[in-house]
């Protein structure tokens, strides 16, 4: 069984804020999979579904972002889940708005929700699905930034990112995170080397 946890803050006042893109993706996945019933357990909203033959739990912690681990840690203990079965979806300020990155493991990178999960599960070996929200505007604090709605310019980018990630999350469940990283992470272009006289050398795409 896989646990797909989207991070965010509970309450209608936070529903459309940048910090809640994890909730947004889980809600979109729930709609795609026909999940209509959410149970309140372990300080979280939990929905059950299947992707292929794999049972999954869709999880939205209700502890507020900075204490996300208080919901996810006990949930994983109850189901005796391995870390490799956890997929966490969250916002990332270090990525431009609407860009995505899938990672196999890693540190918190300054994200308080991930810090809390790491503190409760004790290991970094779980998949991350990161949705970029960009950096704060000049004069804005981080809190102002993450708790503000997306701009009219960025909102369609986020919708596109979530739609793009739905099959990516399904790929993690059906295959593995390596496959999803290879297929869905953006590709980088190598810098072009100096072209020899009389010809050009093309850049080569590599995995991000």
From TrEMBL:
The record marks 91 as: Stabilizes the basic form of H active site to accept a proton. It is found in: Cytoplasm. Residues 184-208 are annotated as: Disordered. The record marks 9 as: Discriminates between blocked and unblocked aminoacyl-tRNA. It is an enzyme of class 3 (hydrolase). TRNA binds at residues 14, 64, 66, 112. This is Peptidyl-tRNA hydrolase. It comes from Selenomonas ruminantium. The gene is pth.
């Amino acid at each position: 069984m896989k646990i797909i946890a989207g991070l965010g803050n509970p309450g209608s006042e936070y529903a459309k804020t940048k910090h809640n893109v994890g909730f947004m993706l889980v809600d979109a996945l729930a709609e795609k999979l026909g999940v209509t019933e959410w149970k309140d357990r372990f300080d979280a909203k939990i929905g059950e579904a299947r992707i292929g033959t794999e049972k999954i739990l869709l999880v939205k912690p209700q502890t507020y972002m900075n204490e996300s681990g208080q919901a996810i840690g006990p949930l994983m203990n109850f189901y005796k889940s391995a870390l490799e079965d956890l997929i966490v979806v969250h916002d990332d300020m270090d990525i431009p708005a609407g860009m995505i990155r899938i990672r196999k493991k890693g540190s918190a990178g300054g994200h308080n929700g991930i810090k809390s999960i790491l503190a409760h599960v004790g290991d970094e070996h779980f998949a991350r699905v990161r949705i970029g929200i960009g950096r704060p505007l000049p004069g804005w604090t981080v809190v102002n930034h993450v708790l503000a709605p997306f701009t009219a310019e960025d909102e369609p980018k986020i919708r596109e990112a979530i739609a793009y990630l739905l099959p990516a999350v399904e790929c993690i469940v059906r295959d593995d995170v390596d496959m999803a990283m290879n297929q869905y992470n953006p590709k980088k272009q190598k810098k072009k080397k100096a072209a020899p006289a009389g010809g050009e050398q093309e850049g080569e795409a590599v995995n991000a």
